[in-house]
């Protein structure tokens, strides 16, 4: 009687093999797991050995699976190429250079084309924003303008991924007061995510922003994104989908950078984000990060940091800070058109 009951349970298990389990089988086979290992796991979860072997055999013989295996072989080759670059980067990590008044051609050939970061100095010496912008001047000229900011960030560990939920409207003068009084805080920040509202509200500010024709297009006027907040704002590790300039107008920022070749170790599962915390990389949780070189700099007022596309970067404001971000480079900067559509799986 017990034997018959056991056979009945095995038959039930065979009939209830779900697509989730079949996906699990396929994924682990692609990752190189031995069929016997999968058989043991399936048996521990109530499936008979016969059912487990049938399903694994069906997966291995499926032309769909074989097609995916071919694709994986090509992706493995790409990973191998990335691993070469990562290994070379670990031998002698590159230094983050500062270059005084770098020419456009030198910037193009030595940094933009090489996908290499650099800090450019001496290009903002005569910039009106550097001499004019401060909290009192913001209040005097724009206090009653209604702007949009990111607010309530401290209550949400994923405030960057959930940035839409943190949008709040207020008078610019009110925000300036909050920035001044908040001390060290990550709770409020005016970022590029607020640009659609703030570009019009603070339009006159762009008259003071440098055009930088050596590097940026000027035929469509001055372009960019306005970042303003207190000391203590944190932008967690992420990568951009374009090349980017960080044009530092007020205050200092600490920036940490990781080369794109270390993508496989960044635990990147959602869009352009990673759970790796740039403030304190947890090597117990992320042991693969142990040998990943991290470049670090303090970006001073009047300096420009070139952030190449794909580079992971973490940004922390050390003072009340204003940064202009620009992406309208003179050279091709369209790296987002072929960005994977299904990037949250």
List keywords for this structure.
six-stranded mixed beta sheet; 345 residues
Short description:
The chain is an alpha+beta fold and 345 residues long.
Describe the overall structure.
- The protein has 345 residues and is an alpha+beta fold.
- 34% of the residues lie in helices and 19% in strands.
- The chain contains ten helices and 13 strands.
- Helix 2 packs across helix 4, helix 3 (35-44) packs across helix 4 and helix 8 runs antiparallel to helix 9 (172-181).
- The model is unreliable at 1-14 (pLDDT under 50).
Can you lay out the helices and strands and say which pair or pack?
Blueprint (H helix, E strand, L loop, with lengths): L1 H14 L3 H12 L4 H10 L4 H13 L1 H29 L6 E3 L3 H9 L5 E4 L6 H5 L2 H8 L3 E6 L15 E5 H10 L6 E2 L5 H7 L23 E5 L4 E6 L4 E7 L2 E6 L36 E5 L4 E4 L4 E6 L3 E6 L19
Parallel strand pairs: 1-2
Antiparallel strand pairs: 2-11, 3-4, 3-5, 6-13, 7-12, 8-11, 8-13, 9-10, 9-12
Helix pairs in contact: 2-4, 3-4, 8-9
């Amino acid at each position: 009687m017990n034997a018959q009951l056991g056979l009945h349970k095995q038959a039930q298990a065979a009939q209830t093999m779900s697509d989730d389990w079949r996906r699990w089988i396929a994924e682990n086979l692609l990752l190189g797991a031995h069929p016997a290992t999968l058989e043991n796991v399936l048996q521990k979860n109530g499936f008979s050995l016969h059912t487990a072997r049938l399903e694994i055999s069906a997966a291995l013989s499926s032309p769909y699976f074989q097609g995916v295996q071919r694709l994986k072989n090509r992706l493995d080759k790409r990973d191998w190429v990335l691993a070469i670059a990562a290994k070379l980067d670990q031998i002698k990590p590159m230094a983050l250079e500062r270059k005084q008044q770098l020419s456009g051609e030198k910037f193009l050939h030595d940094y933009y084309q090489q996908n290499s970061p650099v800090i450019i100095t001496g290009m903002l010496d005569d910039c009106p924003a550097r001499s004019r912008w401060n909290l009192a001047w913001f209040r005097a000229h724009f206090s009653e303008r209604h702007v949009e900011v990111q607010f309530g960030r401290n209550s949400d560990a994923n405030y960057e991924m959930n940035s839409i939920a943190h949008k709040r409207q207020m008078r610019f003068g009110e925000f300036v007061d909050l920035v001044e009084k908040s001390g060290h805080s990550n709770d409020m920040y005016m970022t590029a995510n607020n640009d659609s509202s703030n570009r019009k509200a603070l339009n006159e500010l762009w008259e003071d922003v440098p055009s930088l024709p050596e590097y940026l297009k000027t035929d469509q006027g001055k372009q960019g994104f306005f970042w303003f907040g207190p000391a203590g704002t944190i932008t967690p590790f992420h990568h951009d989908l374009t090349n980017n300039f960080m044009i530092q107008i007020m205050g200092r920022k600490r920036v940490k950078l990781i080369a794109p070749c270390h993508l496989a170790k960044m635990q990147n599962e959602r869009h352009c984000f990673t759970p790796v915390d740039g403030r304190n990389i947890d090597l117990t949780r992320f042991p693969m990060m142990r040998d990943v070189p991290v470049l670090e700099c303090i970006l001073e007022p009047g300096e420009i940091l070139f952030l190449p596309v794909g580079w992971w970067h973490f940004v922390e404001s050390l003072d009340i800070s204003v940064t202009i971000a620009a992406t309208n480079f003179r050279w091709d900067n369209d790296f987002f058109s072929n960005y994977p559509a299904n990037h949250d799986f």
